[in-house]
Inverse folding.
């Protein structure tokens, strides 16, 4: 039946028609994880008993006709979403044994739909990284080429969905952590507008930038999941309640394509971009043009300041957010502390990995007395410029297209000794986080046998628009249905 | 100027013990990063308002209500507690 | 002392009177089992987020209006970063650059009895920390985070007080405002109202401030006075010995009545304040401020003047009425109803309802007795329908009960009438028995009436002595 190739809607139909039970479907994917994940390392925790218990309940609901569209369908959660009773490690030694006593809002919303949690996916430690190499539990492999990284920080989710070990997964995006791995693994990944998906229970990296979202095989599946996880949450102080946001409906009519204008920022398609990638993107723009969409060159100046601004802001927030890991209330505690300071500083030395420590230190420095204005405040002013540039552009165009990454997935170990180069690979994704906008990365082709992603960026809370545009492309093309050969069998 | 002494200061602020290897590693890494940041030095920003959140939403506040079903069992997550209190090495005041 | 002048500024931490904490829905009630009132948010569990309790905004605005301050239209929460075990997130959510209340002043009486304005720099919202319990025995510190996240308003004065007594009057005035407006319960034993004092001295006439020391966490008016006086003398002694004052934080030891240096907090800390990325600015528009202003009761100072000019109440009476807002509201209502002298009415009120309420105030005052009922009782006493001595018994009877007051009064008045017949007989009998005393009376020793009154009261407990006295006199005069 090739269940692994099915979309969420198809899986839902199988369950609804009782062709297959949730237990069977869960078992099917757990078997795939068991046989394929040894090579990928995309999961940190798989709790079969928990999954089957959920599937059993789902089957009861199905039998009683009390099921929703998503009841019984498996999902994987990035290991920074708190799951009650299941290890939630943030891929850190610091939380190696931490079992949250509560569910993140995103998780409880999906549980309420009757979805079945397959497990918790690997990631960069505390979501700090672009390659999944900073995980305490080891790096994750890219299903398209096991010598390459899957991207990060939601690398485990991307790898798992790309290998079809899970039909869909949650991720989080602070500076590109959904879109970049989606791009590296040939998936569709949505980074929603800041404030549209609750952050409650999603372990914080940088509070003003973090946003949860789906990693899936298509815009349609992203839309289905987004419709469930979005919406105001009383437990999240930055949850949007001001702007009314309707649910996403993929009903864009071909007749309307002509009236849609798309901006191509000239700064993004400069000589810095890999020639192969720009060729692939050009071809996909050709598809859109054929469909009737209008294109226009736009400018997003000061683009080059994004990376420093992003890393200063994110590190500053992280340095404070991660202060709570001190060996007292939860998580790792060093052995035989001599005194209080020893407890703190050794717990944090031993519990955090290098990248996390580095960002904590950069952040503490940027906020320290005498440097605050020079670093932190300047970064926030650059942030304003970046957002204003986008808002100006949206006066002229409805959407902006951009490469997701300057290259395809790189080799494991290739950039670990050159952090700066790694940081610079976030050049196209971080501006969207700084500006708070929604963006979806879709697969648009291959370069040297590795997937290439392209971002569709929309104005505030226009997830409906970007997903419709992505969907229009996916109806015409087949890139999103490609499965890496090694995993393209039962 | 960011140097090894600064790394020591910052590590102290951040409560992270560092050994000599760490000291070399972090000072090199952070110095490299700050070079990148310093490239933005020449843009004039004094009349640009800082942006803390985007989109600029309003604060969401809640009503003064007590959780009717409080789950105050968080202490069980602690690596060092006696069921009643969290326990740390004696603090000298 | 005359050579030296002292300068005092106070930082008062007021615990706001709320049901739930400032950023979580756990209760603020005092005295729970350790850590049983600390939610996941209070503990800073991974993934939890602070959601502001909107009532703290209202309370801060009320305080700002009460001290004629500027309410900041866009105030910002900031994180103060430092590691300490009773601070669960290792940062405290507070306000730095844009506090919710800025400027303002109150008036106190200075040491010569003149009015003196004390300016208030700012008042800002913040969360309280938990408690550390140090154990020598086990060489460890126990942490209880129940108090973590309790809402506080920190009120910072300008250094404008010149003596410990001025500091205490300032503190009392602030205490009065926050309790009267129900911003806080003001309970000092439970730490709802505590104070840090910045104390420095300088040669009289000098403009430059001397080096100050900060006296931490003093929670009674008496101790504030003692601690400041001790500290002033300590500083004078140091300077007169040619020594220097060290800028430091000191702790007041109530038992020894001394202040001593706190070792661990000496190091200047870099708190790395920055706007809390979890919390958006508090936006307050003028419309909201006006709404709060309209709903706010008159402040104690304003009411005090009114009671004096309109009702001619004594200072003592006014202080009692203004001690608690329920009492004030009750007094206002009976003052409006009653036609008798306000002074008399309030005396009746204080000696009965007020005392009783203070002893057993588990419920709202007006749930225990209606102002109108109290007025009817007093009215009946004034009209001599019932005796004043019945008042206590009637109150006991109707306190907290839903009983028709007119029938109670009627009951007592007919009982009194029956009593009166009985009393007439009693008087007759007693006068007949005591010929010697009657003779004394007739010879002009009118004080002897007291003897007869006493005798009658022995057998007629609860009767109104003044009524009995009148009756005895008229009977004696008639024989």
């Amino acid at each position: 039946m090739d269940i692994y190739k099915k979309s969420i809607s198809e899986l839902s139909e199988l369950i609804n028609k009782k062709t297959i039970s949730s237990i069977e479907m869960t078992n099917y994917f757990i078997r795939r994880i068991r046989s394929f994940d040894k090579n990928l390392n995309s999961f940190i925790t798989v709790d079969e008993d928990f999954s089957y218990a959920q599937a059993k309940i789902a089957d009861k609901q199905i039998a009683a006709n009390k099921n929703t569209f998503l009841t019984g369908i498996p999902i994987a959660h990035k290991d920074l979403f708190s799951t009650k009773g299941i290890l939630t490690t943030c891929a850190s030694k610091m939380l190696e044994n931490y079992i949250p006593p509560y569910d993140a809002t995103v998780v409880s919303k999906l549980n309420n739909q009757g979805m079945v949690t397959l497990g918790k996916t690997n990631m960069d430690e505390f979501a700090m990284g672009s390659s999944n190499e900073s995980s305490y539990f080891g790096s994750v492999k890219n299903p398209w080429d096991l010598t390459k990284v899957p991207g990060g920080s939601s690398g485990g989710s991307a790898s798992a969905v790309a290998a079809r070990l899970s039909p869909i997964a949650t991720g989080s995006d602070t500076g590109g952590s959904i879109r970049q791995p989606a791009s590296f693994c040939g998936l569709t990944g949505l980074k929603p507008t800041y404030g549209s998906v609750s952050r409650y229970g999603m372990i914080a990296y940088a509070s003003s930038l973090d946003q949860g979202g789906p990693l899936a095989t298509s815009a349609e599946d992203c839309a289905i999941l987004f419709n469930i996880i979005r919406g105001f949450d009383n437990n999240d102080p930055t949850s949007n309640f001001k702007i009314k946001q309707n649910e996403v409906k993929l009903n864009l009519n071909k007749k309307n394509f002509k009236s849609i204008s798309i901006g191509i920022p000239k700064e993004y398609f400069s000589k810095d971009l890999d020639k192969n990638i720009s060729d692939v993107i050009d071809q996909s723009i050709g598809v859109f043009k054929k469909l009737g969409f209008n294109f226009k060159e736009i400018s997003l100046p000061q683009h080059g300041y994004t990376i420093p601004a992003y890393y200063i802001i994110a590190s500053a927030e992280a340095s404070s957010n991660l202060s709570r890991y001190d060996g007292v209330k939860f998580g790792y505690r060093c052995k035989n502390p001599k005194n209080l300071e020893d407890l703190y500083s050794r717990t944090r030395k031993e519990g955090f990995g290098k990248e996390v420590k580095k960002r904590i230190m950069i952040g503490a420095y940027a906020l320290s007395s005498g440097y605050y204005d020079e670093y932190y405040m300047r970064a926030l002013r650059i942030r304003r410029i970046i957002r204003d540039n986008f808002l100006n552009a949206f006066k002229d165009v409805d959407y902006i297209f951009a490469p997701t990454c300057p290259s395809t997935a790189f080799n494991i170990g290739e950039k670990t000794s050159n952090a700066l180069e790694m940081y610079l690979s976030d050049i196209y994704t971080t501006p969207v986080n700084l500006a708070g906008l929604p963006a979806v990365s879709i697969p648009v082709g291959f370069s040297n046998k590795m997937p290439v992603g392209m971002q569709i960026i929309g104005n505030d809370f226009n997830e409906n628009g970007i997903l419709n545009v992505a969907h229009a492309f996916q109806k015409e093309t087949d890139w999103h249905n490609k499965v890496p050969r090694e995993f393209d069998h039962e | 100027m960011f140097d090894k002494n600064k790394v020591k200061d910052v590590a102290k602020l951040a409560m992270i013990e560092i050994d000599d290897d760490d000291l070399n590693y972090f000072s090199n890494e952070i110095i490299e990063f700050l070079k990148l940041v310093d490239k933005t030095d020449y843009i004039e920003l004094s009349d640009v308002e800082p942006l803390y959140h985007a989109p600029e939403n309003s604060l969401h506040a809640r009503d003064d209500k007590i959780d009717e079903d409080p789950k105050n069992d968080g202490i069980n997550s602690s690596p060092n507690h006696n069921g009643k209190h969290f326990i740390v090495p004696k603090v000298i005041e | 002392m005359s050579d030296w002048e002292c300068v005092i500024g106070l930082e008062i931490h007021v615990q706001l009177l709320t049901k739930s904490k400032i950023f979580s829905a756990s209760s603020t009630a005092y005295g729970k089992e350790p850590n049983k009132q600390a939610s996941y948010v209070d503990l800073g569990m991974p993934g939890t987020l602070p959601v502001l309790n909107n009532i703290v905004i209202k309370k801060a605005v009320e305080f700002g209006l009460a001290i004629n301050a500027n309410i900041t239209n866009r105030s910002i929460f900031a994180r103060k970063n430092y590691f300490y075990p009773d601070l669960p997130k290792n940062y405290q959510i507070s306000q730095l650059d844009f506090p919710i209340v800025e400027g303002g002043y109150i008036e106190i009486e200075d040491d010569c009895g003149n009015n003196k304005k004390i300016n208030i720099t700012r008042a800002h919202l913040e969360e309280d920390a938990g408690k550390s319990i140090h154990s020598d025995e086990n060489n460890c510190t126990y942490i209880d985070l129940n108090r973590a996240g309790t809402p506080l308003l920190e009120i910072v004065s300008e250094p404008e007080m010149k003596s410990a007594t001025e500091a205490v009057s300032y503190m009392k005035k602030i205490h009065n405002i926050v309790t009267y407006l129900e911003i806080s319960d003001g309970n000092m034993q439970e730490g709802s109202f505590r104070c840090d004092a910045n104390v420095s001295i300088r040669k009289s006439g000098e403009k430059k401030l001397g080096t100050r020391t900060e006296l931490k966490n003093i929670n009674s008016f008496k101790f504030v006075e003692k601690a400041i006086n001790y500290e002033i003398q300590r500083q004078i002694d140091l300077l007169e010995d040619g020594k220097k004052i060290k800028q430091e934080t000191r702790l007041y030891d109530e038992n020894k009545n001394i202040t001593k240096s706190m070792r661990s907090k000496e190091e200047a800390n870099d708190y790395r304040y920055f706007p809390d990325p979890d919390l958006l600015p508090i936006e307050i528009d003028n419309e909201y401020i006006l709404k709060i202003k309209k709903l706010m009761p008159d402040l104690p100072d304003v009411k005090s003047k009114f009671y004096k000019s309109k009702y001619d109440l004594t200072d003592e009476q006014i202080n009692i009425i203004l001690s608690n807002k329920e009492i004030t509201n009750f007094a206002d209502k009976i003052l409006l109803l009653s036609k008798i002298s306000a002074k008399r009415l309030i005396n009746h009120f204080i000696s009965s309802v007020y005392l009783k309420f203070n002893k057993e105030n588990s419920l709202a005052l007006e749930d225990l007795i209606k102002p109108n009922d109290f007025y009817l009782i007093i009215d009946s006493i004034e009209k001599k329908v019932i005796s004043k001595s019945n008042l206590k018994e009637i109150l006991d009877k109707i306190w907290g009960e839903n009983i028709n007051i007119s029938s109670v009064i009627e009951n007592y008045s007919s009982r009194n009438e029956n009593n009166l017949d009985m009393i007439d007989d009693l008087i007759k009998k007693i006068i007949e028995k005591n010929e010697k005393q009657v003779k004394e009376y007739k010879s002009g020793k009118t004080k002897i009436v007291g003897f007869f009154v006493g005798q009658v009261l022995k057998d007629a407990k609860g009767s109104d002595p003044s009524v009995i006295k009148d009756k005895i006199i008229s009977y004696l005069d008639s024989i």
Summary: Residues 53 and 59 of chain B are 11 Å apart (CA to CA). Chain B touches chain C through 32 residues (CB under 8 Å). Residues 4-42 of chain B form one domain. Chain B is about 30% helix and 5% strand.
